[in-house]
Write a structure and sequence with these properties.
With about 375 residues, the chain is an alpha/beta fold. It is built from six helices and 17 strands. It has a six-stranded antiparallel barrel. A five-stranded parallel sheet has the order 3-2-1-4-7, sandwiched between helices.
């Protein structure tokens, strides 16, 4: 960020992207703000205060005005619906648990931002993610975890196209969230004390099942009644749709057991939700597909760090099988609730190597 550049900044209307734009301008860059309209707000029933809602667009424009930078709103609803919302619904319909923010960053936000930046004559694009890039690293630009461990967002960026890395800037990578808030207050930005959205942006009601009911036929198996069973096959209860469950879930399984019970597996083909005790929810290995590498792909025998869900600590795992479209990994210690559909992100220290979607997990005989 030393030499002045023309930079297109993704501005969601939150404090992070606001400060990212402000820091870039302060550093002498020619900054342009852009907000992406990702879905049709008139069809949503609930809050418009999500990160991509109407209030977000208005706040982004107010910040851009305060910083005296151009601001554009672009409609990416068609691409977002195809690549993110449709994928979200399809995954739940198959009994899997998706990561929509991963899909958005990799298929919609960053590729689209880069393309629009090129049309505007920009040298780089930037976002308010808490990560940083070493542009002089061996083997090409290296994406690293953010300094703020509690806010690190590298988990959501493993699937971005590798070709985008040389053009990316992340101004908040070396900052903590309190430091970002303080900087926003110093600049008197309207977003300085804006609460963080805890919702999926296209599920403003807060219940993803509302979206599934809207987009799936009412007779779809994912929304139909089925059985809750033990691993032995014994039926112990009924459910109103397996799409309401995820591996590792404890609530909503009924009572009457001496020990806590958890969802172990979702069998979409038979509409069964399989439950068991804590031990049954542990896995010694997993299979990952839909791979994307930001660095040279690892090989069989390589030991690396793997993060299997957001907010979880990375754990050691060894690659036991490596193909172009899938990896098998053995955990150093058993891991609980390894969930099909979630991301498995792989690291060498703090550097993001790449990742994939969890296809399956289980206990491998010793």
């Amino acid at each position: 960020m030393s030499a002045p550049q023309r930079v297109l900044v993704a501005m969601s209307g939150g404090v992070d992207s606001s400060v990212a734009a402000a820091l870039l301008k302060e550093a002498g860059h020619d900054v342009i703000g852009m907000t992406m309209k990702t879905f049709c707000y008139s069809e949503t029933h609930g809050s418009s205060k999500t990160c991509c809602g109407l209030e977000g667009i208005a706040d982004a424009r107010r910040v851009a005005d305060a910083l005296d930078i151009p601001h554009y709103v672009v409609d990416v609803e068609e691409d977002f619906t195809r690549d993110v919302i449709d994928d979200f619904v399809t995954e739940y319909a198959q009994g899997r648990t998706p990561n929509p923010c991963v899909r958005c960053n990799s298929t919609t936000k960053l590729p689209d931002l880069l393309a629009r930046g090129e049309l505007l004559g920009c040298d780089a694009i930037a976002t308010g993610h808490y990560v940083w890039i070493d542009h002089n690293a061996e083997g090409g630009p290296a994406l690293h975890r953010g300094r703020d461990v509690g806010k690190d967002q590298s988990y959501f960026l493993w699937a971005i196209p590798r070709r985008v890395l040389p053009r990316l800037l992340f101004p908040l990578g070396e900052l903590t969230k309190p430091e970002v808030r303080a900087r926003a207050r110093e600049l008197e930005l309207v977003t300085a004390d804006k609460p963080e959205s805890q919702e999926i942006c296209f599920v403003p009601t807060g219940d993803y099942r509302d979206l599934l009911r809207k987009r799936l036929d009412s007779s779809h198996p994912a929304l139909e009644a089925g059985t809750i069973v033990l691993q032995s096959g014994e039926v112990i209860g009924q459910h109103n749709g397996y799409a309401g469950f995820t591996v590792g879930q404890r609530k909503g399984l009924g009572g009457g057991f001496s020990d806590p019970m958890f969802v172990v597996e979702i069998r979409a083909e038979t509409r069964e939700v399989v439950v068991g005790g804590a031990d049954a929810c542990s896995s010694t290995h997993m299979v990952v597909d839909d791979l994307n590498w930001l660095y040279s792909p690892p090989e069989v025998g390589n030991r690396l760090l793997v993060q299997i869900r957001y907010r979880a600590a990375a754990v050691e795992a060894t690659i036991t099988r490596a193909e172009a479209d899938r990896l098998d990994l053995q955990f150093s210690t058993p891991q609980r609730a390894v969930t099909p559909g979630q991301s498995a992100v792989m690291f060498d220290g703090t550097r993001v190597l790449g990742g994939g979607r969890i296809l399956s997990a289980g206990v491998r005989p010793s």
